[in-house]
Amino acid sequence: MSTQLPNNPVESGRKSLAKAARLLFDYAKRHAPPPRVRPERPNLPPAAGNYQGAIVALKAIPFVLLAAFLLSFVWDFDGLGTTLFGLELTFEGLMRTLAVGGLIGFGTNWLAIKMLFHPREKRALVGQGLIPAQRERVIHRLAVAVSEKLINPDAIRRKIEESQIIPRYREVSVGVARRVIEDPNFRDDLRSVVADYAKDALGSPSVRKQIVDFTIEKIEGAAGSGFTGLALKAYRAVGEDDFLRRLDLAVQALPEAVDKGLDTLDLKLDLLPDLIERNADELEQWATRAILDIVDRIDTYELVRDSMRRFDEYQLEDLVMKTSNEQMQYIQYLGGVLGVFGGFVIWQPVWATLVLSIIVLGVWGVDEMLTRKRREQHPPNDVPPSDPPPFALPSSPSAPIEQVSVEREAAVRVD
Which are the contacts of 116, defined by CB distance < 8 A and separation ≥ 6? Predict the structure, then answer.
């Protein structure tokens, strides 16, 4: 049963249009293919080599160094020494020297990592952590790096071309449109919506009056000023009420005429699928231009910057630590190992420095030799150029990345 709105035909038209839009959306959703299941996010790739094992072993270093430091107060190679190549070496006090050097190396790295984020709030004497204190500069540089190197209009446009998402969805859209138009239930519902709107609109006295006035104007114009015009004026002079009544009855009969006219709606709908397919290329080009225009209007710098600004200090720390926690731990515990080597240098500055230099150069030389040999045996594969897209995508002018970078660097002055 249609809702009668005799005094508000404009509102009736809006509601009928909204009803038709909902009808089209519902049937398109009904005939659309099932949504593609989004692939699950891949798990964290395994660490290269024995990285996890190295971290587990390194975690024991601080405890070993602390135990050695405490043991040195009880026994520290007391009275032990030797002669090597004529050089007298005294081991007494070596344990404490190595333990202190290792603890200092571990402690300084641990403190340096903590000082990246702590204190989170500015303190009177110790100040504030590096990242919280330089929050705006960090956010600016991160946003610039992401917008220029990772996510930018060129990268998005290239991904759209490679995925061929527009041609694929063009075929899907044409198929959905054909199935919707050929659905007899859709045609019946559409005919009902149009008929209800016609009845609601023609049921309004103001609309009928406008139609009657328009009809009288056209009749008078067609009659002219000759004999027909005089006859019309004479008829209206003696039967004006009857004349208006007949016109109003004719207007009231229009909904029935609309119902009969809707019988030809199926013929019009039958032509739509072929019409859409004939113009599919133009529709695809229009959709491509529209999508690329939207892509070019996306400011990834502003998007990343605004997203980062919504992060508080806790969230920033969590973001950095989640992405580099293992590397931070590796650096932290490796500081203990390097501190032990520093202890050897403190114990025997000249000879320890010479021996460590020989060891470092030897390891570097062997590593370089093995790396070159592996490259010769397994040269990197040449990546063939990707096939061009099956259609030419229009390009839209955009500001060069270098210019954007200069403008953004000027916006945030870096000392």
Answer: 129, 130, 131, 320
Helix axes 184-202, 9-31, angle to 10 degrees: 180
Q: Are 276 and 174 in contact (CB under 8 A)?
A: yes
Q: What share of the chain is helix, strand, coil (3-state, %, to 5)?
A: 75, 0, 25
pTM score, whole prediction:
0.55
Percentage of the chain lying above the pLDDT 90 cut: 12
- 291: three-class secondary structure by DSSP: helix
Place of tokens 């659905």: 183
How many C-beta neighbours within 10 Å does residue 68 have? 18
For every residue of 34-57, DSSP letters joined together read PPPPPPPPPPPPPPSTTHHHHHHH
Instruction: Give the Cα separation of 119 and 113 in Å (integer).
Output: 12
CA 121 – CA 260 distance, rounded (Å):
77
Element (H, E) at 119: none
**Burial class of residue 370 (count of CB atoms within 10 Å of its CB; 0-12, 13-18, 19+):** exposed
Residue 108 in tokens: 């300084």
In DSSP terms, 48 is beta-bridged to none
pLDDT single digits (tens) 42-63? 776 666 656 667 778 888 889 9
